[in-house]
Amino acid sequence: MELLFTTLLGVLIGSFVNVLIVRIPKGESVVFPPSHCPKCNTPLKWYHNIPILSWLFLKGKCAFCGEKISFQYPLVEILSGFIFFLIFYVNGFNLYSLITSLVFVLLLALSVIDLYYKAVPDNLNLLASLLAVLSSPSLEENLKSGLLVAGGMSMLRFFVSYYVSKKVEFELKKEIKKAPWLKVYFPPYVMVEAMGEGDIIVGFTLGALLGVKATLVAIFLSALLALPISLYYKIKNNDSQLPFIPFLALGAFISYFFAQPILELLNV
Ligand SMILES: [Zn+2]
Which entry of 50, 160, 213, 227 is 20 to 30 Å from 6 by CA? Predict the structure, then answer.
């Protein structure tokens, strides 16, 4: 009974998360105006606003203008309910389960926004990092782990950016040697940023939530998940800019439950 209640709570929060996903990147208020169709702007009736069921009932179309409603809405609601169900099922009914579930639901929101915009809003990202520190009684340990992962990622970002920048600079110099007149078109120095700043805050969140070891497992898993998909995209679209937060979030969720057996399997 309690599990059913928390799962429903998760679904309801997922419904609100859909509002965050749609409105925050556009800089709109998340409470006003009330839910409306993005196409025809007609305000929704209460029975159009029931998570999952309304979407099924309306067959994924607006009741007024017939515009297709994205599958994102029921999907985020289902995933959010699933997150709440699993976390509460494993950790029992307490405040920390609630905070942990909220962190994962925020990571879900960041993932969807990253998919759409290839960037994430700082306010949701910072909220997730703050909640991650509060996600278990050992605040000091959580903070330390978060800072350690964020620091490690910053250094990694610095090294990778340096390497990529130098490589690009080297290629440019070779081009200029072949055709000196090209020089006016090139910048005097090259600065390529590998990894976004937002990814480092997500790194902090994972560190605070999972601890350092399980975060390394999460990053390992996310790279494993991202590799085939990034290769596919590179071949198909000639585009290597894959949003990484969805993979990090999924890796973190798996690692939250299975870090120990995975570490044992890898013998570390
Ligand atoms: Zn409509």
Answer: 213
Q: Residue 19 — φ and ψ, nearest 5°? A: -65, -45
Judge contact between 202 and 110, C-beta under 8 A.
yes
Report pLDDT digits (tens) over 119-164.
Answer: 899 999 999 999 999 999 999 999 999 999 999 999 988 898 888 8
Q: Could you give the CA distance from residue 195 to residue 190 in angstroms, rounded to a whole number? A: 16
* Spacing, Cα 61 to ligand 1 middle (Å): 8
Centroid of ligand 1 to alpha carbon of 201 (angstroms): 37
Measured CA to CA, the distance from residue 164 to residue 193 in angstroms comes to 8
Determine if the peptide bond prior to 33 is cis (ω within 30°).
yes
Residue 123 Cα, ligand 1 centroid: separation in angstroms? 29
CA of 25 to the centre of ligand 1 (A): 21
Task: Give the Cβ contact number of residue 109 at 10 Å.
Answer: 27
Predicted TM-score (pTM) of this structure? 0.89
Kindly give the distance from the C-alpha atom of residue 54 to the centroid of ligand 1, in angstroms, as a whole number.
14
Vertex 117 angle, CA 48 and 64, to 5°: 20
